[in-house]
## 1
Amino acid sequence: MTRFDPSGPLRGWLRPPSDKSISHRAALIAAMGEGEIEITGFLDAADTRSTLAAVEALGAGVRTGTGSRSVAVSMGPEWDGPPPTADTQDLGLVIAIRGVGLRGPRPAQIDVGNAGTLLRLLPGWLAGQEGGEWTLDGDESIRRRPVDRIVAPLRRMGANLHAREERLPPLHVEGTALHGAVYEMPIASAQVKSCLLFAGLLAGGQTRVVEPLPSRDHTERMLAAAGAAIDRDGDAVVIRPAERLEPIAFSVPADISSAAFFLVAALLVGGSDLVLVDIGVNPTRTGVLAILERMGAKIERLMEHEVGGEPIALLRVRSLQRDRGSAPLRGTEVGGAEIPLAIDELPLVALAACFAEGTTVIRDAEELRRKESDRIETVTAALRALGGRVEPTEDGMVIEGSGGLRGGSIDSHGDHRIAMLGAVAGLASREGVEVHGMEAAAVSYPGFEADLAALIGR
Ligand code: S3P
């Protein structure tokens, strides 16, 4: 059990850990290449270590096993300005991966740990390897994550896969020749899209993946940079098979999904002034900024530039309230196209909504039920335990702003984002929050508690 007491302001600057989505993809695409590829700022966390172990099991060489972690620098009460340095590219450690080539992965048993992204992306690459066999399995939470969403479309491309009860891991892949297909995804999922794009690299003919709504597009950007024939055509992404991928270096920005915990903490804890540097602000990831701004937050975006095909910015956020408990945030409605752009940050929107005036409605977000935990249930349970007024719905939540949260005790249910949500709630609460299962944070953010402590000057 870890306790998070009501805190003084968060002041200083933070380079959050590197982007989890981009790190997974960088390791996989590097493994598909030939020769050695450098990845700067590869996320050093449990989830992405699973991906490094997976590519090693497939025959790729990983030269250094460590990647980049976050850096937090506390500033005194007199501080009033930009960070000591804005160029933090050099904070990211470099790892090197020697690829096995697009058609070279060797048979293996893959332990994906807790990584849903690895579980969904990797089979796309393996399904088209004639003659090879692989099994993917993971922890208790992974065994509840559906894989039928990739099995069905991959089968349409000719793939041979077997899942437990047709929909759950372990997932067995028998590589075979694939053919291109047109697939209209019933749900907006970057994981499903990416899986099919990887399969399309090896399929005969063209593969066309139609998205009901735009979802994160890192895979498209990275495959294009590696020389794949990939194009957007309206609401579809079209890919043609490739002989090989070009060896290119990757650079991973900080993860906006990790930054979001600090954004919300700084908004809710009076007197805070936080600068978040090197943040990936790809427009398919910034839904949380738009939602918080609509609720009344002022988030400055400074020094926007592009590194390795991804837009990056420095974000400055200051608290809206001087006295804890009465933030001038307003309730809002979140649904439709905004959901995939903010999917992992919706728990934080629900937390902020407890501090807002009026009602917040989150709808069209049934996918939350299929994340590391059923996040409609786990967020509702956590916020209610702290005094929040939250009603779960089939596809979201209705939150009545209650002028803050009392505090209490919550369980992370092994979900990294619920653990960190509890910590932020504790700092902004009246009585503090005890989090059971705080260690889950290490899945995406190993230094989370230390960074929080540094920024509140503890
Ligand atoms: C991810 C996509 C999202 C997101 C997950 C990471 C990715 O899942 O929730 O944390 O890296 O592609 P879906 O694409 O299944 O919605």
## 2
Amino acid sequence: MTHAPAPQAIASFPDQFVWGVATSAFQIEGAADTDGKGRSIWDDFCKQPGAIADASDGLRACDHYHRWQDDLDLIDRLGVDAYRFSVSWPRVRPGGDGAWNEKGLDFYERMVDGLLARGIKPYLTLNHWDLPSELQAKGGWTDRDTVHRFVEYAQGIDRRLGSRVASIVTHNEPWVIAVLGYEQGIFAPGIKSRAAAMQASHHLLLSHGLALQALRAQGCKAPLGIVLNLSPVQSATDSEEDKAQTRLEDGKLLRWYMDPLFKGSYPVDVIAYLGADAPRMQAGDLDAIRTPMDFMGVNYYSRAVVSAKGPWDTTQGGLPLTDMGWEIYPEGLTELLVRMHTDYPVPPLYVTENGGAFKDVLQDGQVHDADRTDYIARHIAAVGEAMRQGVRMGGYMVWSLLDNFEWASGYEKRFGIVHVDYATQKRTLKDSAMWYAAMLNARSGHRSHSAATRTTL
Ligand code: FCB
């Protein structure tokens, strides 16, 4: 049973609030070896036995590289203002260094122009995890040289696309790259070292700050920011042990990133906890990291409940779970946004990802995903509540436009508001997509040019 509010529910959101849908390159493009694309660490990771739940890979994914025009038409039919996508670094600069791949750059140029022609704002992310394999061979994000390669990559993309995109994000979720990729080893590149993870996190942050400086120095006009995955971190009980552990976990997840970005320092409690695993830094690094941003993105899915007995998780709080085993906790989004606004001098915030994996059933060309609609509607309401409490919000993007390659979960988990039949590549709008479109269509001042196409939904 859905509690989804009627489409008018967003009537109180400001007219300039940006509504969107999000994807990332590796998860949808496929064409892994096409037109000169180089290998990424995710191409390599998928080959490791047992790394991906269904032993799948990104070789074909949603075949978006070949179907992008139809997919842009689909986005247009939803009536969104913006499309958040990422550029595959190894597609545009295969080895991460050296020659650029014109065919790869052309692909993104055509796509950006295709979005603009449809009146949709392109929101570009530079690094949604698919690091060129050649850079990993030299240490990946643990190697300080990768910072400089990233800055060059950012400059190259800006030269080609910067004047046409509506915003540029440097990194998507540095915590995930560092902790899941370099400490737990359950994501690419599959390394298990806490020292490596912390060094990687520092280099990711440093490359973000230096890229902002370099882009502005070459005249980039696009608003610039970063995207973090954040959650409220809550103690399982009132015991002193659990509360102390909760403070530390909050430090590792949130303050480790927000403090250097906005205060110019790493949290001392986390540095003390890390001991010899704390990252090596150079003079000036922390100043670079706190380079002011024009906006900031937060990806929100669930909360973390912490006890001193073991690692935090998202399943034990007693709330209903999504198909990822993540608790559904929309209030947490309000709490998080208000906390960011209260504790840090943040620029306007965007929810750059939010959505849910659920067990969908495609029957007679329909997917009645009331659980997903309910999830999205309740989180949108939570954003509205944060705005009522004074948080400056710029927009909200659903994760995801399409069912896609959900990293280590492969194709088993479906986050799309559009269903993908991977055998035929047929796209089917789920009920949640129609609900989202109806809601956007009910706005005053919505994109008028696509009103005609919207009636075909
Ligand atoms: C986020 C990722 C995104 C997707 C969602 C479910 O951590 O940024 O690519 O996998 O989770």
